[in-house]
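Request: Give me one sample?
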Amino acid sequence: MIPSNTKHWHGAAKDSWLVHISIETNITAGSAEWLEAVSVDEYNKLV
């Protein structure tokens, strides 16, 4: 589990698929903040 207020991203490897399902269960804590997408160039630097 990722702690609250921690910036992180989800991604698949170049040779695999990723399906991300987000379910917010604690509505009193506020909604999720979806951050900027990772560009192809940024992703290629990480892999």
In short: Residues 40-46 form the longest helix (7 residues). The mean pLDDT is 76. The helical segments are 40-46.
